[in-house]
């Protein structure tokens, strides 16, 4: 019991340990996994990322040279980044935000 | 890289028992103090195999019992009370009966009372899992679908002779292709984006160079008793004869000249393809296929051939040339490039062509003519082409080689008139590019009043070949003089007569001729009652994986091939490219990204 | 009148005390429990069937999501089973890394459980304090690989990531802080009279019956039986001289003490593994498809986890069976509850550390095309 009293008194006079989200945001660490972005100048539509993705959140259309990515199916495992031979994928360092509708992001190569 | 072995103090033991003695074994295990881990079942259709997993001290014991599906399985929950949960699960899962369970949920373990049957399982929505194996871009670009990823892997594993067999399965002339193929595969390689494609052609050459002898032991199928005639000893003819010979037919090859080779013989200079190598590989293929070769036989009439044989394959090539269409074309000193190249390549002569040589044309054959002229001693060799460098159909590799050897290029000029005096006078006119024509390239339009004259000793025309078919063949030809065929079966308008190669498609390449030969061989075999040749395959059981550290193969430098020095080259006809040695080939083959992986 | 002596009380699936939904029906006589009928199946997702239609490499990520608390060890055990079937050799450094992350997962799970147990008893301030200290571990996870709970650093044949100098320093420093805080609570757990009154003597599992009923993990170690899968020496435990912690009390109190002491054992194991880790590569990929059957066992925070994997030479498995510790602890739970009183139900259910989402992978194949 005496140990608990010490702890309780210490906590009365210090900042709460909870982060007051959404008014304060926690600091992102450099390894935090966020949504992915494709650099279409480097992508060569080889479909390696599509073959590796566990929940099948990536769809590549090689003739039309576009990539469809669903941030709501993605499990943020970053296997696609590890396997892309042209290093065309990068990830943000803030966790993905919630949304009203399940959207799909489209990346196209400019002709 | 050492992998220390940590001692794991556990072993696994497998015990197979019949149903009748199952309980004896279980009692034994219980006496030894084993504890039940779980029960699972494997569905073999008519019978089920139950696997009981026990843990005894630190070891695992698996007890396997097989029983037909209809018979109920006795429960072991009298000995091991915790088994009731797993047996209920098996009952509901596989729809089987387990008798005498201590706590029987009666099929309700996986549902709650009153719930619908399907509320607990979400049906699988969405696309099927993407598990597909690709051919790889290099293989898709090859006209003959040669399994390039596989032989690159075989080289990387240290088995180049296996690579030779892999290549010869689809395109049976690897030593030749490794030197002369225009390699569409390299243009489609994914590493081309950094200008460092895998040198697939040179690796193919390495597999051939590493064979102690190009003659292999091949098994021919049982003789079918059918006879097939092949007209023409070029790549299409030899390829078709080889495949038909392996399928068991009796093949006779008729060749107009005294040696096989066709366009590979007279058209490709010795510094790109040594002629004894050509002869060696062609003879090897003909021997493996058991083909009878009849040289110096010019076939003019197909009817007798058709009577004596069950099928005929015509591969006569493109042996006529286009005319320039200018005055004075027939003067002495104006030669067709075929004449020049045949003299040098086939008859091993060194004609004197003087010091100043003009070459009209911009394809690979004109560059060959230019480089041959340099080696024959001409000091001033100029190539005239009527469009610009961007539209030249010659490959950049060849243009680079020619520039190194001192050949000059002049663009946007075309000949107008040729006159004969003490030496030849060639009048040329300058051009500019106008609107595009059917092939998409911009048509050259002459600039009025821009004529100029040069004096040369020899003029070589190299503006293209056309097909000439003897009238007595009796096959339909199209407007350009080429033989008309049905592209699926390779059959001509005459039943039983097939055609392929340059004679059908106009001047193309060795690999396209080999593709035609293989396709025709398949077609002929099927029409004669056989099974034909297998299509390109893609097995999922063949494991292909990338190395653990992908960084090792991500961005690595291309291994360039050693070549003869430019000054050395023009003194003779030795081979310019020196090929890879073992070390270089291993390094290059390991760079491959294995685009057909399926790990 | 005497016919209707018994009342049936339904407990769950939603209950403030339960971390995950399970349905139990208690047959009670006044205040004493006479019989229990469990009813599982509320969280089942068809993971075993999902393992059969996926590529075998994708299954690591599927199996990690069987449970939300004890997830790293699921992925690791699956990888071990496949490695046994394909013959891949794991490098030595990867074995140590796997030990470190497993122990980190065990720490996180035990701290979560200690907080929830305190909450079930009614000791809110202890709950809040333990969970505040657990946040440090989750931040460490995020520094390692970006996710707070699902570490996803497994691959078949080793690990995907490595620990470099700065991360190893962060591990040592942050875990020392947590260790200090947990030391302060030692007298609370061992001596507090309110805690003891609520947990001593409740949920007795006699030593002789425990192995018979199939109990695993701290449930059985709290009854005096010395058995722990880590003694078999899988991964690098063979080199780390591991001895399990056993208490003789046979009730819920001794199970709580087992888990509390295991927290300190995990701290020691992590420190030792960080010091003894050899240099070298961390991934050694396999070279063939799985063919044949393989078994892997490992020790989760709740007991012994068992994976049975069967492949047929292509890149899809033909059967993957998972037997989780909570599934094995349900028969002992039934026997523990009988004879106790109704107010003790939350305490006893919590003392086996129920992770019901682990249990629920039974597959129901109704439609042929599934």
The CATH superfamily of chain C appears as: Cytochrome-c3 Hydrogenase, chain B
The largest inter-chain interface, given as chain pair and residues per side, is: B-C, 56 and 66 residues
The end-to-end span of chain C amounts to 51 Å
Return the CATH architecture of chain A. 2-Layer Sandwich
Strand order of the largest sheet of chain C: 1-2-3
Q: Total helix count of chain C? A: 14
**Inertia-based shape of chain A:** elongated
Structural class of chain A: alpha+beta
What does this structure look like?
The complex is a heterotrimer of chains A (111), B (599) and C (370). With 111 residues, chain A is of the alpha+beta class. Chain A is built from 3 helices and 5 strands, in the order αβαββαββ. In chain A, the strands form 2 sheets. Chain A has a 3-stranded antiparallel sheet with strand order 2-3-5, with no helix packed on it. Chain A has a two-stranded antiparallel sheet with strand order 1-4. In chain B, the strands form 6 sheets. Chain B has a 5-stranded parallel sheet with strand order 9-8-7-10-21, sandwiched between helices. In chain B, α4 runs antiparallel to α5, α4 packs across α20 (582-590) and α6 (174-180) runs antiparallel to α8. Chain C has a single domain, classed as Cytochrome-c3 Hydrogenase, chain B, CATH 1.10.645. The N and C termini of chain C lie far apart (51 Å). The chains are: A alpha+beta (111), B alpha/beta (599), C alpha+beta (370). Chains in contact: A-B, A-C, B-C. At the B-C interface, β2, β3 and α2 of B face α9, β7, β8 and α12 of C.
Helices and strands in order, then pairings?
The complex is a heterotrimer of chains A (111), B (599) and C (370).
Chain A (H helix, E strand, L loop, with lengths): L1 H11 L23 E3 L9 H5 L5 E4 L4 E4 L9 H5 L5 E3 L13 E4 L3
Chain B lengths: L11 E6 L4 H10 L3 E9 L3 E10 L2 E10 L4 E2 L8 H12 L3 E2 L37 H5 L6 H9 L3 H11 L3 H7 L3 H5 L11 H10 L17 E5 L3 H12 L3 E5 L8 H4 L8 H15 L2 E3 L7 H7 L2 E4 L5 E2 L12 E3 H9 L10 E5 L3 H12 L4 E6 L10 H10 L2 E4 L1 E8 L3 E13 L5 E15 L1 E4 L3 E2 L30 E3 L2 H4 L4 H18 L23 H4 L11 H4 L12 H9 L9
Parallel strand pairs in B: 1-4, 5-6, 7-8, 7-10, 8-9, 10-21, 12-19, 13-14, 13-19, 14-15
Antiparallel strand pairs in B: 2-3, 3-4, 11-20, 16-17, 17-18
Helix pairs in contact in B: 4-5, 4-8, 4-20, 5-8, 6-8, 9-11, 9-17, 13-14, 14-15
Chain C lengths: L5 E6 L11 E7 L2 E8 L7 H7 L5 H6 L6 H16 L5 H30 L2 H22 L8 E2 L2 E2 L5 H20 L1 H6 L1 H7 L7 H7 L4 H4 L30 H25 L14 E10 L2 E10 L4 E7 L1 H13 L7 H7 L4 H4 L11
Antiparallel strand pairs in C: 1-2, 2-3, 4-5, 6-7, 7-8
């Amino acid at each position: 019991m005496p140990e608990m009293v010490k702890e309780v008194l210490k906590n009365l006079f210090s900042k709460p340990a909870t982060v007051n989200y959404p008014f304060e945001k926690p600091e992102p660490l450099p390894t935090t996994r966020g949504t992915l972005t494709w650099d279409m100048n480097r992508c060569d539509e080889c479909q390696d990322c599509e073959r590796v993705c566990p929940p099948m959140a990536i769809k590549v259309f090689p003739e039309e040279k576009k990539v469809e990515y669903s941030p709501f199916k993605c499990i943020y495992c970053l296997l696609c980044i590890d396997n892309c031979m042209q290093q065309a994928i990068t990830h943000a360092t803030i966790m993905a935000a919630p949304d009203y509708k399940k959207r799909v992001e489209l990346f196209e190569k400019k002709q | 890289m050492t992998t220390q072995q940590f001692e794991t103090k556990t072993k696994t033991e497998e015990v197979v028992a019949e149903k009748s003695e199952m309980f004896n074994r279980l009692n034994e295990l219980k006496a030894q103090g084993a504890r039940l881990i779980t029960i699972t079942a494997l569905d073999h259709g008519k019978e089920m195999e139950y696997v009981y997993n026990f843990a005894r001290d630190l070891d695992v014991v698996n007890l396997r019992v097989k029983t037909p599906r209809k018979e109920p399985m006795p429960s072991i929950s009298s000995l091991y009370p915790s088994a009731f949960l797993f047996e209920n699960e098996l009952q509901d899962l596989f729809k089987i009966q387990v008798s005498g369970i201590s706590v029987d949920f009666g099929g309700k373990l996986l549902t709650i009372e009153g719930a619908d049957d399907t509320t607990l399982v979400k049906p699988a929505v969405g696309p099927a899992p993407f598990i597909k194996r690709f051919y790889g871009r290099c293989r898709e670009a090859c006209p003959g679908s040669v399994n390039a990823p596989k032989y690159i892997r075989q080289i990387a594993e240290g088995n180049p002779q296996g690579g030779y067999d892999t290549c010869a399965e689809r395109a049976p002339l690897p030593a030749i292709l490794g030197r002369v193929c225009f390699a569409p595969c390299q243009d489609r390689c994914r590493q081309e984006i950094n200008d460092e494609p895998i040198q697939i052609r040179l690796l193919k050459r390495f597999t051939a160079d590493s064979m102690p002898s190009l003659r292999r032991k091949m098994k021919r199928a049982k003789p079918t008793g059918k006879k097939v005639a092949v007209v023409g000893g070029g790549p299409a003819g030899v390829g078709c004869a080889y495949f038909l010979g392996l399928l068991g037919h009796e093949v006779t090859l008729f060749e107009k000249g005294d040696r096989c080779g066709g366009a590979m013989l007279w058209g490709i200079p010795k510094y790109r393809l040594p002629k004894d190598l050509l002869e060696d590989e062609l003879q090897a293929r003909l021997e493996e296929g058991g083909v009878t070769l009849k040289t110096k036989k010019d076939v003019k009439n197909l009817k007798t051939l058709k009577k004596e044989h069950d099928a005929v394959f015509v591969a006569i090539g493109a042996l006529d040339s286009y005319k320039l269409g200018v005055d004075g074309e027939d003067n002495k000193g104006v030669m067709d490039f075929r004449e020049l190249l045949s003299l040098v390549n086939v008859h091993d002569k060194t004609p004197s062509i003087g010091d100043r040589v003009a070459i009209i044309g911009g394809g690979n054959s004109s560059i060959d003519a230019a480089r041959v002229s340099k080696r024959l001693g001409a000091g001033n060799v100029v190539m005239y082409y009527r469009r610009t460098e961007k539209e030249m159909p010659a490959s950049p590799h060849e243009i680079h080689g020619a520039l190194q050897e001192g050949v000059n290029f002049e663009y946007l000029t075309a000949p107008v008139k040729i006159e004969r005096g003490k030496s030849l006078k060639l009048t040329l006119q300058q051009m500019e590019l106008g609107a595009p024509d059917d092939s998409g390239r911009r048509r050259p339009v002459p600039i009025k009043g821009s004529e100029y004259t040069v004096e040369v000793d020899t003029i070589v025309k190299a503006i293209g070949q056309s097909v000439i078919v003897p009238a007595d063949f009796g096959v339909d030809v199209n407007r350009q003089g080429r033989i008309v065929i049905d592209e699926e079966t390779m059959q001509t308008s005459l039943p039983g007569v097939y055609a392929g190669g340059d004679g059908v498609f106009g001047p193309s390449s060795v690999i396209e001729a080999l593709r035609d030969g293989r396709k025709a061989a398949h077609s002929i075999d099927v029409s004669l009652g056989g099974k034909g040749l297998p299509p390109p395959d893609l097995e999922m059981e063949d494991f292909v994986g990338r190395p653990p550290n992908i960084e090792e193969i991500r961005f690595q430098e291309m291994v360039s091939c050693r070549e003869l020095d430019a000054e050395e080259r023009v003194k003779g006809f030795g081979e310019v490219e020196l090929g890879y040695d073992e070390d270089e080939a291993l390094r290059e083959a390991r760079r491959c990204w294995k685009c057909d992986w399926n790990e | 009148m005497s016919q209707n002596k018994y009342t049936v009380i339904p407990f769950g699936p939603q209950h403030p005390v339960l971390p995950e939904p399970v349905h139990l029906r208690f047959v009670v006589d006044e205040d004493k429990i006479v019989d229990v009928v469990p009813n599982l199946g509320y969280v089942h997702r068809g993971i075993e069937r999902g393992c059969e239609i996926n590529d075998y490499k994708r299954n690591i990520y599927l199996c990690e999501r069987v449970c939300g608390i004890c997830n790293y060890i699921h992925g690791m055990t699956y990888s071990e089973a496949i490695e046994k079937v394909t013959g891949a050799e794991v490098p030595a450094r990867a074995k140590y890394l796997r030990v470190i992350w497993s122990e980190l997962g065990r720490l996180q799970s035990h701290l979560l459980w200690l907080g929830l147990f305190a909450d079930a008893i009614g000791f809110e301030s202890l709950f809040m304090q333990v969970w505040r200290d657990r946040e440090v571990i989750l931040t460490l996870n995020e520094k390692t690989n970006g996710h707070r709970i699902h570490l996803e650093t497994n691959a078949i044949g080793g690990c995907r990531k490595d620990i470099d100098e700065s991360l190893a320093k962060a591990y040592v420093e942050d875990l020392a802080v947590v260790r200090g805080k947990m030391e302060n609570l030692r007298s609370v757990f061992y001596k507090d009279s309110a805690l003891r009154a609520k947990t001593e003597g409740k949920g007795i599992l006699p030593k002789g019956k425990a192995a018979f009923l199939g109990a695993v993990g701290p449930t059985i170690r709290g009854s005096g039986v010395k058995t722990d899968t880590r003694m078999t020496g899988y991964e690098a435990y063979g080199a780390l001289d591991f001895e399990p912690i056993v208490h003789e009390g046979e009730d819920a109190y001794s199970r709580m003490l087992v888990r509390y002491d295991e927290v300190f054992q995990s701290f020691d194991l992590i420190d030792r593994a960080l010091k003894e880790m050899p240099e070298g590569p961390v991934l050694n990929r396999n070279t063939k498809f799985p063919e044949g059957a393989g078994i892997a066992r490992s020790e989760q925070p709740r007991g012994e986890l068992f994976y049975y994997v069967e492949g047929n030479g292509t890149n899809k498995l033909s059967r993957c069976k998972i037997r989780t510790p909570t599934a094995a602890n349900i028969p002992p739970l039934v026997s523990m509850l009988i004879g106790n009183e109704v107010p003790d139900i939350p305490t006893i259910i919590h003392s086996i550390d129920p992770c019901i989402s682990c249990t629920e992978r039974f597959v129901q194949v109704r439609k042929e095309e599934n």
